[in-house]
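Standup notes
- HV: blocked on the assembly model, inputs below
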Amino acid sequence: MGLIQTWGMADLSRNIPTNGSISLTLSTLEVTTTVQWRVDLTRDRIMINEGNSGYTTVSEQRIVQRISAHLDHVRRLSGQSSRAFVEVQSTFPPRLGVSLQAPLFASLTVAAVKAAGQELPIRDLTALARLGAGPACQSVPGGFVEWHHGDSHETSYAESIAPAEHWPLVDLIAIVSGMGQLTDTLEHDQRLAPTSPLYAMRTQSAEARLAECRQAIQNRDFDHLADIVEMDSRLVRAVTLTSEPPLYYWAPSTLTIIDRVRAWRMAGLQVAYCVAPGPNAHCICTPEDADLVETQLQSVPGILDIKRAKVGGPTRLVG
Amino acid sequence: MGLIQTWGMADLSRNIPTNGSISLTLSTLEVTTTVQWRVDLTRDRIMINEGNSGYTTVSEQRIVQRISAHLDHVRRLSGQSSRAFVEVQSTFPPRLGVSLQAPLFASLTVAAVKAAGQELPIRDLTALARLGAGPACQSVPGGFVEWHHGDSHETSYAESIAPAEHWPLVDLIAIVSGMGQLTDTLEHDQRLAPTSPLYAMRTQSAEARLAECRQAIQNRDFDHLADIVEMDSRLVRAVTLTSEPPLYYWAPSTLTIIDRVRAWRMAGLQVAYCVAPGPNAHCICTPEDADLVETQLQSVPGILDIKRAKVGGPTRLVG
């Protein structure tokens, strides 16, 4: 979940963004990916179990093609020439409005490289995951993660700037609208970023926000974090709202939640809003205030569901 | 009502904005101001009849001071040394969320200059009105009015670029929240404009929008007008939302109206939204579609009231 967000790509084909970002790895929402390289397959076979709703062979041509294209990167790197049997198991409830792509491509990368008998430094794993889906690089290291935008495949990578235990923040995701998980709408939408007359200004000012966000995390300074994260959300809002065509994203309830979060913080609760492109609002809070914020959120009109996530660890090999 | 809006001042003391603007003069919402220069008064006396609620001597110290300060400009210009008795009669319903200041200072200027026995070219009258309240210059000439930002008192003036009859558009003002009329909140808020990292970019790009808006008006090209007016509203939104501190302004219902207006236009209605800083949404429409849009607006939740205004004429002398 992006505290300081990327919006707009310097290199679309390799997912190299125009500005760096800092994100919070979310636990609770887990994706487990199994990769077997099998000589008996003539093409990659991909099965996705979405939200414990039973396995379904993914029919969305687009995501199958992308997973297969990502496996090609691993094949090139490892000398592996077989096709793969891939199983993806997700605890994401359907239509959560949080992209499944980041944890999917992160776990796919880690599993496929391991299954191919390769050992890669974590930095290289993050860069490789990035080729599958930009934000996937941030799902590899765990905790609070910075994605250095870089200017080449090697220099556009992610690293953990603090482990999950450093600051056990809670993310209460207020779902105000159902959105598909596997679509690549957001990636497509990012192509519009440069059409906003405000895009360059946001990009230029990102470095300063990254430095402030890093410092707030290091000092566990919630007020400072809240200010900078909310400002960055509004800046992304400004760019999306002024692209051509405009991307409206926010629902009326999104504004209601923002309004309440501001009032709750004024009243002393440690809570900040963070809205990635889309209508759902993340309410970041300290563990001490999470229960009270969740109770308050339940009385806000227009919220369909609230999901609670903690700061999660790195993508790891299971079994 | 600003089609292309000003937001931010190059010279706060003389109300010279950083970018030019184009506005629609609104009829229906009328202000009648009477000025008598009277040797028997030791100070200016100001009475305001707001929304036909009976005359009340204005007690708000701030507005009385401002009207008196504006009368000083006229005294200096005309050699008039008396104090004035000023009566302001307004058809604005209270808490309309449309600033009374523009028509008030426009009519005050025209009436006070005339009562002082002066004749001024309209361009000079607009510049003089601007000293009272920036947007007042736009209320003087009538119809579709451009305010040239200029860089001095003489060059920051307004002129009509098309009379009201040129294109009889209708403005349906959807009131979603009560706001005081006589406050100078917006003027104060504009001081924050330069704190937004996006401010300079919006200002720089204003000239191109002014040219497009001018052309759309000349050609009575509604679709083109809608695109450019809505874009400018979103750009102002972007700047206000990212100033420090941020100015939230929009209510959840504001987003609902914008969403509906877009859907209605997609369905073929000639309607565009225009949102000045504040929560209320102006729905500009062609006279042919105004009734249908008004009926549709009546079913949108969260709207307290709908006011209909037409394109109005110049500030004129009555009696």
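- HV (later): unblocked. The mean pLDDT of chain B is 90. The first strand of chain B starts at residue 2 and ends at 4.
- Next: hand off to the docking folks.
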